[in-house]
What does this fold into?
Amino acid sequence: MRSPTCHCLTCWMMCVIFAGPARSADDVNLARRSALAVALLEQYLKPAPGARAPWDEQTFLEIPLQRRDAASIEKLLWDDHVRQIRASRAAEMKEHTLSDGDLKMPFAYTIFGDKPKTGRSLFISMHGGGGTTKAVNDQQWENQKRLYKLAEGVYLAPRAPTDHWNLWHEPHIDRLFARLIEDLIVFEDVDPNRVYLMGYSAGGDGVYQLAPRMADRFAAASMMAGHPNDASPLGLRNLPFAIHVGANDGGFKRNEVAAQWSIKLDDLQKADPTAYLHLVKLHANKGHWMDREDAEAVPWMAQYTRDPRPKGIIWKQASTTHHRFYWLAMPAGTEKAGSEVVATYAGQEIKIESNDVAQLIVRLDDRMMDLDKPITIRWGADPVFQGTVSRTIGALARTLTERGDPKAISSVEVEVRAPAAR
It folds into this structure.
């Protein structure tokens, strides 16, 4: 049989639908609708963003997709996202300054080594100081710019937007770092699965706080000479975490607290042996300044790569709450400080444990399970969803635009409620 010579949309769709072995009417219908969704999205994306019709009015958003079409749409959406970010954020990258309301976060970075095929690594390195003058914090930033060297990657030192004592764990930091990572993915071809967090002194305070609440953004984190304050280690389940403190660093009892966290992390790993990878080192005969011995943290972190879809997660909300954590999300406005969710998946089943939240959005992807087969979601012992799910453009677009992370896109969203809340 000769290849068709017609290039119209209808003939192309028919060739796609009926190619290969005979299929059921349901399969043919899904293939037809899925191919139509791809074609409609392609047409929608052709004009410049400002000339497009409102996104939320498009009829293709909830059309069920075949697996192969979902993969094609991921690329279409990502390519469009890159074009928009390059156009809208070129100025902030040229100025090396991000804004959050009236706050400004300057940053400086150096690129080391050759770029791997998967993209560059990114090391975000937070300076010390805090609770002091602008001049002192500026000097701390200058020190941080040249404190560590990489074998490969982007070494980026931001300047905190404030001079407060908690300069690296105020709520605006989460937003600014999310934007920073999104920018570097596009402008410096950073691999989203190889982003690392580190910081010294007040910057170390920030690592203790930010790493658990933003664990799903990083491949590993390393805390140098800081104090955790009220941070919880529970969110570190899938994030390799290092602690480096001088054995004689008694200021704010940093050395004692580091030893306490070592015990906490040991206990968590004993209870969950494949999780909570960590390294805690109290550097002998060193005080607050470790004479750069802590630089060993850089190659230690670099050996790890993020898994954006781990089979088990513990989501412990801090005082600064988040809408999304790995493959779970919460409906807007339902986030609650201190709440805890434990979730796992295996085969075609997802299990949720939580007494603190009433609703969750479970986000799924073909890399997690077979989305062409029925799935079950249990909340405790109770099934809260059983059946088939649909991949949609709406889910793909929402999960991409939230973060601009091409490695953490989901094609399915299932909203479920706790049994007592139904």
In short: Confidence is low (pLDDT under 50) at residues 1-22. Residues 9-88 form one domain.
